Amino acid sequence: MNESEKLFEKAKTLIPGGVNSPVRAFRAVGGSPLFIKSAKGPYIYDEDGRQYIELINSWGPMILGHAFEPVEKAVRDAIQYSFSFGAPTRKEVEMAELITQMVPSVEKVRMVNSGTEATMAAIRVARGFTGRDKIIKFEGCYHGHGDSFLIAAGSGAMTMGVPDSPGVTKATAADTLTAPYNDLAAVEVLLANNQNQIAAIILEPVVGNMGCVLPEPGFLEGIRTLCDKNGVLLIFDEVMTGFRLAKGGAQERFNIVPDLTTMGKIIGGGMPVGAYGGRAEIMNIVSPAGPVYQAGTLSGNPIAMSAGLAMLHYLNEHPDVYSRLEEVGNKLTDGFRSALLKTGLNYTINHVGSMFTLFMTERPVTNFSEAKSCDLPLFGRYFHAMLNRGVYLAPSQFESLFLSTALTDELVEQIIQANEESLTEAIT
Ligand code: PLP
């Protein structure tokens, strides 16, 4: 047994499933997870001293590579002043100002500690603001582990939600309606059948959580129009896409203005940070300005704010980051496409900017049921073949990969080569 395997065996006796977040356990691909000791730039190192090229980047935050110097320095500088005050700080004001500049639809913002907290708070605010109880989400979109979001689709868009996890009550599930992603007609039906009852529509403007799935032309515009017509708030969950698909997130890239936005991942530079914000008129109902309660002992933590601020400042002041990410994304996906041609496989690649997924299916993937048509055992073999060649992918078909600016052209070529060899190995 290697060190990772030994640690996993012990972890399983102490932590449910051996991990502190389920997908880390490698259940979807088989085998034993790597236990990570350190990471720098484009590389991650496991407890056995092996080096891997990073295509997960902590599920998104490490957009500039690991231990990026300005972020590391900001944290070092901050820790000398103590780690938490539970009182307002200058850095929180700077953070709020920077976020509102980078994401103009956000006029006021509240910091929290995770994406889950951000989405939970956002729907509470939407409910408080509209005086309505129900929300609409899309099948295959993940908004963290708040009860209201752990809802399966039932049998089609007309169906009331049913709990996806034991512990979520039927009453909670009944307030979450679901529709297939990219299906405007299904949303129209839900709105028509629940008039004056829907507080918000929440979606990932580009989905990362069923693999990378793009909004079809007109989908986001159509949702915006339906929200306006029906007095429903539009919540963009930009926990993955925020500060990644553009400085101002997917809303800038697709030119759609949501009412509320949830953020996470990059905003903390790798520290546990989330945020939600939107029009001042809506955010003014949040406590203590208004009656909708939301709080947090460690919210706006000074160390986390320092890391996040250093990250966002860098992104705000270096637009070349985004052109480089486009370039890396295009090079990699071009290379992956030519490997598919060479190996005679007609699989689907969905790609936008620095997010992409190679789906092991010949169908186009525009929603969750299409994503589920993938050959999952094949993905598992491909994943391990890539790992053996030193490339660390997300351990599930239903995830997006996240690129960083630490990837050099040489590393891109290495990944392309590993991909071609791994595909060939996986199909034979
Ligand atoms: N929303 C989206 C779109 C996410 O991708 C995630 C996590 O991956 C979350 C919310 C939840 O964020 P967290 O894991 O920080 O609670």
UniProtKB/TrEMBL annotation:
One of the protein's GO biological processes: protoporphyrinogen IX biosynthetic process
Catalyzed reaction equations: (S)-4-amino-5-oxopentanoate = 5-aminolevulinate
Extent of the signal sequence: none
Alphabetized Pfam families for the sequence: Aminotran_3
Entry's localization field: Cytoplasm
MF terms in GO: glutamate-1-semialdehyde 2,1-aminomutase activity; pyridoxal phosphate binding; transaminase activity
Subunit organization: Homodimer.
Family membership: Belongs to the class-III pyridoxal-phosphate-dependent aminotransferase family. HemL subfamily.
Protein name, entry field: Glutamate-1-semialdehyde 2,1-aminomutase
Organism of derivation: Spirosoma validum
Organism lineage: Bacteria, Pseudomonadati, Bacteroidota, Cytophagia, Cytophagales
